[in-house]
Design goal:
GO terms for molecular function: fatty acid binding. This is Lipocln_cytosolic_FA-bd_dom domain-containing protein. By secondary structure, this protein is mostly beta strands. It has one domain: Calycin beta-barrel core domain (Lipocalin, Beta Barrel), CATH 2.40.128. Helices cover 12% and strands 54% of the residues. The protein is built from 2 helices and 10 strands, in the order E-H-H-E-E-E-E-E-E-E-E-E. Strand 3 and strand 4 form a beta hairpin. The longest helix is centred in the N-terminal third of the chain and has 9 residues. The radius of gyration is 14 Å and the shape is globular.
C-alpha cells in the first residue's frame, strides 16, 4: 500500500479508550472531555514531499505539515510541544512524539488502512487507544 492510500477526507466512526489515552498523555480534564465527544474530520493530502493532516471539528481545527523521516517541532492540538518524526514502516505511517518538557510524555501514533477504513492506533505510557475512520463520499 502506498502512502497515497491515506489521502482523502475521513470521518471518525469509532473511538476506543481515547479518554484514557489522553489522560495518560497529560491532557487536561476539560480538554479530554471535549475531545472525547467531538467527531473530527481528517483531511490527509500529499504535495510532493509535504504531507498534511488537517483535523477539523466543532471544538478546534489543527494542521500538521511534515516530511517523512524529518524531525520537526510539533505543536499539538492541546498546546503541548514535541519533537516529532513520521516514518513509513510496513505500510503504516508511524509518528513518534518525543517530549521536550520534562512533564510531557512521549507517544506513538500509527495510521494505516485496513478493510477500507483508516485506523489510528495511539500509545502513551502503556495506555492504548484506537480511533477508526471511514472515507467520506
Amino acid at each position: 500500500m502506498p502512502i497515497s492510500d491515506l489521502v482523502g477526507v475521513w470521518n471518525v466512526c469509532e473511538s476506543i479508550n481515547f479518554d484514557e489515552y489522553l489522560k495518560a498523555c497529560g491532557v487536561s480534564f476539560f480538554t479530554r472531555k471535549i475531545a472525547s465527544t467531538v467527531k473530527p474530520v481528517l483531511t490527509i493530502s500529499v504535495d510532493n514531499d509535504d504531507i498534511t493532516i488537517n483535523s477539523c471539528s466543532t471544538f478546534k481545527n489543527h494542521s500538521t505539515v511534515f516530511k517523512l523521516d524529518k524531525e520537526f517541532e510539533e505543536n499539538t492540538i492541546d498546546g503541548r510541544i514535541f519533537k516529532s518524526v513520521f516514518q513509513w514502516v510496513n505500510e503504516k505511517l508511524v509518528q513518534t512524539q518525543t517530549a521536550i518538557k520534562a512533564d510531557d510524555k512521549p507517544s506513538t501514533i500509527t495510521r494505516y488502512i485496513k478493510d477500507n477504513k483508516l485506523y489510528i492506533d495511539m500509545e502513551c505510557s502503556g495506555v492504548k487507544s484506537t480511533r477508526t475512520y471511514t472515507k467520506a463520499d
